[in-house]
Every structure is written in structure tokens, then in C-alpha cells.
């Protein structure tokens, strides 16, 4: 079983030790026993080609799997033509960077609120997404996985069902399952192994066994309100907010899954990712 664990961006301890550049992250993670790194383009795609290629070389040197988080500004459901153009650009730019880095996956938020009619809004999202997939194919970028992420707020596009439907639109489209988000949007429903199993079964029924086996996972402890996600915390606060990683760890081993698990804890991404790794080892 090849399960990869890693960090979304750089944790506080990376900077506290005097490091500054993302080029130092692959070696830093590998020294700690981690082997995945989600490079953050969430505030815009600013990295230049030479640095992206160098980061890719460092990642390969130290055995670290790369993924990219595309900008938060993506909005598939927008009705504004200029925002549609920008959304296309954010996704295509992220894929170009992934090509330079040799990153396997680009994660993105579907974006936008549901408006007055969620069904109509989602139909708009699918129309724009199909256009984007055509442009991706025209540029020869369809070998990079594109992963819409399950979102954590009720008044936000990106439910599990919506994400899986987006995935049905193209072979390169796979889900990024954020279990902290799913727990927040369902008001703390993820408690038992069965709760997690139901989600994995839904994904398998719609997208097949291989997609579940190689799932791209985000996991963190998230405080929530009636509206859903409020704030990311660390594993120290897991008893306060959840969800608990242990039932998922057990399922990963039982089902012989080989996911990439990216920790999005608030400042302790690497430290908490190592705890996730130890929890999975416990069930092997």
C-alpha cells in the first residue's frame, strides 16, 4: 500500500526554523517522514516557470508527490462574462504550473453561491466546466488530474453530489474529498466507520473502485455553525470539533486504499499529517 501524507502549504514550524522558500519544502517534509506537498496558488498563480520546474526537481529528488491548490477566485457558476474568462484562466494557469512541476493533481473550489435556484446555478457550472475541459484538451493538459473539492458551507456550491457530477464530465476529473468540510456542512455527521464508509461507497458507485482507491483527501479539524464551516483548528482541538480521523484510517487499511492525504490544520499541517500517518500504521 502506497499512502502519501503531507501538508497544504508550509506549516508554522517551517518558518520558525528560518526557512523561507517553498523550494526547501520537499527536503524538509521528507526529513520528517512525509511525502506529499500541496503547493498553494490559492491567492493567484504567481510562480514562474523556472521556479516551478526547480520545485518539481526537488520533489522528485526527495520522493514527495506534488499537487496544486488553484486560486480561490474560481467561480464556475458566475453569469458575468469577465469572471468566466478569469475562471478559465485560473484553472488553465494552474494546470500549466502543474505541467512544469510535474504535479499530478490540481485541486479547485467550484465557487459561488447557489442563488435562488441551486439546480439552475449548477447547470451553469456544468456548461462552463465543459467549455474549460475542451480548452484543456486543446492545450494538451488533459493528463493532469483536475479535482473539484467538496465544500464546507451550506450556501456554497460543491456538495458531494455536485462534485461527483462534475467528475462525470471528463476522465481527468476526480474528486478532492475534504472530510472536514463534509463534516461541517452536515453538522458533525462523521463519527463512525460506517459514516465514512457511506461516503466512500457513494463515490465508488458513481466513479468506480480505482477513483476511491487513489482518492485525493483533505483532512482537518473544522469548527462549524448552522451555516457550515467556520474555522480550521489543529488535532489538539479534535475533541471539540471533529471529525475523528481514526475511523477513516481503519477504512483505508481495510479497503487497501492508496490515497494522498493532505492535512490542512491551522499552522500544524506537517505535525498533524504525521499523526494521521501513525494512525494508519496502527491498523496495518
TrEMBL record:
Tell me which residues make up the Xylose isomerase-like TIM barrel domain.
27-268
- What SUPFAM superfamilies does this protein map onto? Xylose isomerase-like (SSF51658)
Molecular function per GO: DNA binding; DNA-(apurinic or apyrimidinic site) endonuclease activity; phosphoric diester hydrolase activity; zinc ion binding
**A GO biological-process term:** base-excision repair
Keyword Nuclease set for record: yes
Task: Provide this UniProt record's keywords sorted from A to Z.
Answer: Endonuclease, Hydrolase, Nuclease
**Know the name of this protein?**
Endonuclease IV
Amino acid at each position: 500500500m502506497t499512502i502519501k501524507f503531507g501538508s497544504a502549504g508550509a506549516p508554522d514550524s517551517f518558518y520558525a526554523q528560518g526557512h523561507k522558500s517553498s523550494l526547501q519544502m520537499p527536503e524538509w517534509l521528507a526529513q520528517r517522514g512525509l511525502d506529499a506537498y500541496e503547493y498553494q496558488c490559492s491567492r493567484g498563480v504567481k510562480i514562474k516557470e523556472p521556479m516551478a520546474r526547480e520545485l518539481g526537481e526537488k520533489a522528485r529528488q526527495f520522493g514527495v508527490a506534488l499537487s496544486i491548490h488553484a486560486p480561490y477566485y474560481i467561480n464556475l457558476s458566475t453569469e458575468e462574462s469577465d469572471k468566466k474568462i478569469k475562471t478559465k484562466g485560473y484553472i488553465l494557469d494552474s494546470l500549466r504550473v502543474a505541467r512544469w512541476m510535474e504535479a499530478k493533481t490540481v485541486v479547485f473550489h467550484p465557487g459561488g453561491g447557489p442563488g435562488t435556484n441551486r439546480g439552475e446555478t449548477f447547470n451553469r457550472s456544468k456548461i462552463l466546466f465543459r467549455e474549460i475541459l475542451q480548452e484543456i484538451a486543446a492545450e494538451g493538459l488533459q493528463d493532469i488530474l483536475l479535482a473539484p473539492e467538496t465544500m464546507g458551507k451550506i450556501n456554497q456550491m460543491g456538495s458531494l453530489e455536485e462534485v461527483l457530477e462534475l467528475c462525470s464530465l471528463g476522465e481527468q476529473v476526480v474528486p478532492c474529498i475534504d472530510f472536514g468540510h463534509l463534516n461541517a456542512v452536515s453538522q458533525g455527521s462523521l463519527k463512525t466507520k460506517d459514516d465514512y464508509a457511506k461516503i466512500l461507497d457513494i463515490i465508488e458507485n458513481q466513479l468506480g473502485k480505482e477513483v476511491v482507491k487513489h482518492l485525493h483527501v483533505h483532512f482537518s479539524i473544522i469548527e462549524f455553525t448552522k451555516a457550515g464551516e467556520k474555522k480550521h483548528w489543529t488535532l489538539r482541538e479534535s475533541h471539540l470539533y471533529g471529525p475523528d480521523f481514526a475511523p477513516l484510517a481503519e477504512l483505508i487499511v481495510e479497503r487497501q486504499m492508496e490515497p494522498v492525504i493532505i492535512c490542512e490544520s491551522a499552522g500544524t499541517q506537517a505535525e498533524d499529517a504525521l499523526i494521521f500517518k501513525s494512525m494508519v500504521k496502527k491498523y496495518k
